[in-house]
Specification:
Layout (H helix, E strand, L loop, with lengths): L1 H24 L10 H6 L14 E3 L2 E9 L10 H11 L1 E5 L17 H16 L4 E7 L1 H12 L5 E4 L15 H12 L1 E3 L9 H6 L5 E3 L1 H5 L1 H9 L8 E6 L7 H10 L5 E6 L12 H16 L2
Parallel strand pairs: 2-3, 2-4, 4-5, 5-8, 8-9
Antiparallel strand pairs: 1-3, 6-7
Length: about 300
């Protein structure tokens, strides 16, 4: 009887620890507090947008225009240096979009998914085609997923993918796939309380990054079918393709980029891997080389 009593107490303690851990690290029992950390961290303008994170355009020639798509829970700000570098190098128009709901508060994206954001970027690239002869696409993370779908469904010029997301890296000690945990517990955890603003290894770059502090799970869950369909149609990509990814990416599995490279039908395609950076490679240790690779790939394809 005493032995059974000890087992019951031990189980109860483990359950309590699990509940406390969920409460500390996620939105478990705190769904209504999803905006609290971000509202206390960022300064918002009169439009309810975090300061210095709106969409922007750098004007130049419209012979070739560039359309840049930022990542999930992030902002156009992460593409600023890249946009300026491209504009300075080629003197061409660069448009950096702001995905719906981003640069505001996390609650603004709860009912959205990659399908909604694809409808947005699809319309915006169509609008850009009215004034531009050619369009290059650059997407990072979820923005890379959107750029991949655009390449599958539209006639574009060059495609540049930075750490595109199709799945999360798996480690043997996870036991189950990360996607399984998300599908099982996501609806009760609601969001993750980040311990750092983004997966960036460089302390200097991490300190400058702007993104949501609370990462909602619902939009990722809602994007499951979109990601699956994108995986199934990789062979439709025919545009020249440059993919750059870090082997140490903690968010997007590097196998994603290898799969896109292998299954795409592009005649000119290349995958460049890095060691020092994490997920947001355009704001990490390898960013200078990454930007230079884009410039060199663009010049090479123009000369062939």
């Amino acid at each position: 009887m005493k032995k059974n009593h000890k087992i019951i107490i031990s189980i109860a303690i483990l359950i309590l620890i699990a509940i406390i851990t969920l409460y500390i690290q996620t939105g478990f029992l705190q769904a209504q507090s999803i905006n609290k950390r971000d509202l206390s961290k960022w300064t918002y303008d009169s439009d309810g947008i975090i300061e210095n994170t709106k969409e922007f355009t750098l004007q130049g020639s419209n012979e070739t225009c560039w359309y840049l798509i930022h990542g999930y829970t992030s902002t156009p700000d992460e593409m600023t240096e890249l946009a300026q570098t491209i504009n300075n190098e080629f003197n061409e128009t660069v448009v950096v979009t702001r995905l719906k709901g981003h640069s505001q508060t996390p609650s603004q994206i709860l009912n959205l998914s990659l399908e909604d954001w694809y409808n947005q970027v699809d319309q915006e690239t169509d609008t850009l085609k009215e004034t531009c002869n050619k369009i290059n696409i650059i997407g990072i993370s979820f923005g890379g997923t959107l750029a991949t779908r655009l390449a599958e469904e539209k006639n574009l010029n060059n495609i540049y993918l930075l750490a595109p997301y199709l799945k999360t890296p798996y480690k043997f000690y996870y036991i189950l796939k990360p996607e399984t945990y998300l599908e099982t517990f996501g609806p009760i955890m609601h969001y993750s309380k980040k311990t750092k603003i983004a997966q960036i290894n460089s302390p200097e770059e991490l300190d400058k990054h702007i993104a949501y502090w609370n990462l909602p799970f619902e939009p990722v869950l809602n994007s499951k079918d979109f990601i699956k369909q994108t995986k199934e149609n990789l062979n439709k990509i025919e545009e020249p393709l440059l993919i750059q990814h870090s082997k140490n990416d903690k968010t997007s599995d590097v196998e994603t980029s290898k799969t896109i490279l292998e299954k795409s039908s592009s005649k000119t395609k290349e995958l460049i891997l890095f060691e020092k950076s994490n997920h947001i490679i355009i704001e990490d240790y390898d960013k200078e080389e990454i930007m230079q690779n884009i410039i060199e790939f663009e010049k090479k394809t123009r000369n062939t």
